[in-house]
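Q: Hand in one record:
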Amino acid sequence: MIGAARLFNNEQLVVGAHFGSLSFCLGKSMKKTFALIGTAAAALMFSGTAHADVGSGFVGLSYSNGNPIDLESVGIDGRVAFGSNIQLDAGYNSIHSGDLNRWDIGGHFFSRSDQWLWGGFVGYENFDASGGSADEWTVAGQTQYYVDKTILSGNLSYSRTNALGPDINTIQLTGDARFFATDNFTVHLGTGYGRIDVSGSNGNFWTYGGGAEWKPDQLPISIYGDIGVVDPDGGGSNSTTWTVGVRYNFGGGSIYDRERHGASLSSPRGFLDLLF
């Protein structure tokens, strides 16, 4: 796995020592319980779509890999919009290099007009391995701007990671531009800047990447691919991750309808996502 000491070349930033062995102080059984609760809640979210005032959403399967460390991951995730002001997300990943399991759940609360969206996000993420587990909470402010066939998105997030030793605090500002060649073919480009702080020691980093998604007009299935890079300041090693996947889209309509009127918001995450 990618240790933070490798990503952030700072002798005083010793976070990599905490994560290299995955020996975290938080109890494995308790965290797994929280994760199972989150998964059960997610199942309730999706099973209720036939009976609630829901917008569009999706359930997806994905495969990811990356370098400089070969980290294979298979995942399932989903988003669903309830009414016009709530979006709920949930996901699970099995990371084969290191026998890791990742769980996440989050909620978005927002107001959307013809041109703007303003809102907030609260999310929880858990990593579980044979040697222990770690968890992370994230809060964020979110916005989107709509013009023609373009959606501009921005997130300002704060994350706290609880693990062996001091807490790890991460602040990130990210932006994304999504363009629609047709209602069912979209490409996006994104970038961001962040800062990690551990007991007064810190490191800064850039993120950038992009991707595309396509759906046949008469089918609810879409395919997508993404690539993301973490580029630390100060001479650390870059980390690149690529993902391919398939989604079952529900609620009717096109990808544009989903992104413009439905479950369109990304889930900001913190330090753990930089590692894996």
